[in-house]
Design goal:
Structural class of chain A: mainly alpha
Helix content of chain B: over 70%
Distance between the termini of chain A: 26 Å
Number of domains of chain A: 1
Radius of gyration of chain A: 22 Å
CATH architecture of chain A: Orthogonal Bundle
Oligomer: heterodimer
CATH topology of chain A: MetI-like fold
Largest sheet of chain B: none
Number of helices of chain B: 14
Structural class of chain B: mainly alpha
Radius of gyration of chain B: 24 Å
Largest sheet of chain A: none
Largest interface: A-B, 43 and 44 residues
């Protein structure tokens, strides 16, 4: 994510003696400590996901009935679950599931939404009207209802959950990018590009899309937290990622409530992981929004 | 104003129709149906004829356009049909659960309003002090914590510290208000806290913005009592975006209900929805999606009207 900040603002970073992206990141950390804290959480989570095979103390999927519902101890820092699986390992591997689903669905949701929004604004007229009506229909489903409906159709499993989260994100992004693109359509450089006889595709992708980058990046970061939360909710309802894959929402399902009194660690730690991850993404995203959107900047 | 309301109202109809078409088609694209699932649980061998007979009884053998027309004709007469799973009328199944979910939704909204408006105002008045930071972290945390986990923690806390659990069965408020509230207050808090997060942030920034307006300076220059400036001049004007946000975040409420009802084992609309979806109960899922979208659209519609009513600039456009 640090790279994304760098590229979005590397014009400013060019004058420093440090490498541009590093200076930008440092300045970002200095001016927005909360955002930097969020970035640290996100980075930590990304590291945990990448290095899961090395840092996880055990296999997240191997059951061991001799070790059922053990409290936190030296061998099992966060205890074991009702199948005797190490909870710490499942949380570390769970960050893989969360990040994979979070990133892919936020990326595809925002990107498809941006393309639809910009194209709809560019063509205008009847096309715009039809697209907007269809987006209105999608928007009149609350996020989780639409996601649940998609899972019901496709069935559970990681790929289907990604799709189920991507689809409700599309109209939300299309709405925002369309508004920015409407202003861009009237700029002289788009008129010039049209006069040069460039194709619609070229104008949309080369001239208009790069200029909705700021709202796009803001939406991607905002979607990330939402996507992780949505995945956790779906998995919690039993309509998301399927056992035995390690996923945080899934860890809170069934046994965690059933054995709440005997083994509270089962119910506490996965929730801490979800909250910390979403907290990190939201903090980082908020600061990024303030930094990228000059209109919201105060003084 | 009347024309504005009428225009906005008429726009609701095509949207709802689109929702109906979409959900109808989506459900039928999915492999497997309610009959297969019903007999999958039985375990015994069921002949294809028996299953086809059951399908015919449910009207699943008719062509798609016919099924859709039947459904639409039913809706036009306020007849939503019967559940494909239980065979009972859908209006009955919804009615027995609506009371619980509606009460929960209202209580969660009250919790959200009671939390967000005072907290947001205080944060704005004490901008950049520790009070402000605490409120901001509190509201960002509310967005980060899934309401179902909050619910689990509440149950856990009550079990460990008080060896007590909220009542398992729903009692209507007028029969035993105490039992009713002691069951519903927890899920309402779990959903309401999350619901309040966005509204708190909105209140904060709205109050901050209003406090910088000229009329506030004028009021101060007149030597008006600070409390009066705050309530009559600042808050009244800051409430507009807050009201909107509370309306728009209605979706949070529905999402919150779906998962929290599961945690607290409440037999409400959210629970019914998850059940209907997993059982491929087409008629029930269709009716519920339509109900949810309808209330969502109506809330947005009412918000638009309230907005226009509160802000004459929109009304006279």
């Amino acid at each position: 994510m640090a790279e994304a900040v760098g590229t979005a603002a590397d014009v400013k970073g060019a004058k420093g003696s440090l490498p541009g992206w590093l200076e930008i990141s440092l300045r970002f950390a200095q001016q927005r400590p909360l955002g930097a804290a969020g970035a640290v959480i996100v980075l930590g989570m990304a590291l945990a996901a990448l290095l899961a095979d090395i840092i996880a103390p055990g296999d997240p999927q191997v059951s061991n009935y001799a070790l059922m519902l053990r409290p936190p101890s030296a061998e099992h820092w966060l205890g074991t679950d009702s199948f005797g699986r190490d909870i710490l390992s499942r949380i570390i591997y769970g960050s893989r599931t969360a990040l994979l689903i979070g990133f892919t669905s936020a990326f595809f949701g925002a990107t498809l939404g941006a393309v639809i929004g910009v194209a709809s604004a560019y063509f205008g007229g009847r096309v715009d009207l039809m697209v907007q009506r269809f987006m209105d229909i999608l928007l009149s489903f609350p996020l989780i209802i639409l996601a649940l409906a998609v899972v019901a159709i496709l069935g559970t499993g990681t790929m289907n959950v990604i799709l189920a989260i991507t689809i409700p994100m599309i109209p939300r992004c299309a709405l925002v990018t369309r508004a920015s693109a409407l202003a861009i359509r009237e700029t002289p450089y788009v008129t010039a590009a049209r006069a040069m006889g460039f194709s619609h595709t070229r104008i949309i992708f080369r001239h208009m899309l790069p200029n909705v980058m700021a709202p796009y990046l803001i939406l991607v970061t905002a979607f990330l937290g939402q996507a992780i939360l949505l995945e956790a909710s779906l998995s919690f309802l039993g309509l998301g990622v399927a056992e035995p894959t390690a996923a945080w929402g899934l860890m809170l399902r069934g046994a965690a409530v059933e054995f709440a009194e005997r083994a509270p660690w089962m119910a506490i730690f996965p929730g801490v992981a979800i909250s910390a991850a979403v907290f990190g993404f939201n903090l980082f995203g908020d600061s990024l929004r303030d930094a990228l959107d000059p209109k919201l900047r105060m003084g | 104003m009347q024309r504005y309301i009428l225009k906005r109202f008429l726009l609701m109809i095509p949207t709802l129709f689109g929702v109906a078409v979409l959900v109808f088609l989506l459900l039928r694209v999915a492999p497997g149906d309610v009959v297969e699932l019903k007999y999958a649980g039985v375990g015994a061998f069921v002949s294809k004829e028996a299953m086809d007979q059951e399908r015919a009884q449910l009207g699943l053998d008719k062509p798609l356009w016919r099924q859709f027309m039947d459904w639409m004709w039913g809706i036009a007469r306020f007849d939503f049909g019967t559940s494909m799973w239980t065979g009972r009328p859908i209006t009955y199944e919804i009615a027995i659960r609506l009371q619980l979910s509606l009460q929960l939704a209202i209580m969660a909204t009250v919790v959200a309003v009671l939390l967000s408006i005072p907290l947001g105002t205080i944060a704005a008045l004490r901008q950049d002090t520790w009070v402000d930071y605490v409120v901001r972290v509190f509201s960002i945390a509310g967005l980060a914590m899934p309401s179902f986990w909050l619910g689990i923690l509440m149950i856990l806390g009550m079990l460990i510290f008080f060896r007590w659990l909220p009542p398992m069965f729903f009692t209507p408020f007028w029969i035993d208000p105490w039992a009713n509230l002691s069951q519903l207050i927890w899920p309402a808090l779990a959903v309401g806290y999350r619901y309040s997060a966005v509204a708190t942030r909105m209140t904060r920034s709205a109050v901050l913005e209003v406090l910088r307006e000229d009329y506030i300076r004028t009021a101060r220059a007149k030597g008006l009592w600070e409390k009066l400036i705050l309530t009559r001049h600042a808050l009244k004007n800051a409430m507009l975006p807050v009201v909107t946000v509370i309306g728009l975040e209605f979706a949070f409420l529905i999402g919150g209900l779906v998962v929290t009802e599961q945690v607290f084992n409440l037999n409400g609309i959210g629970m019914l929805f998850v059940e209907a979806i997993t059982r491929r109960d087409y008629t029930m899922t269709q009716a519920l999606v339509l109900l949810v979208s309808f209330s969502f659209i109506v809330v947005n519609f009412v918000m638009d009207i309230v907005y226009a009513w509160l802000d004459p600039r929109i009304r006279y456009q």
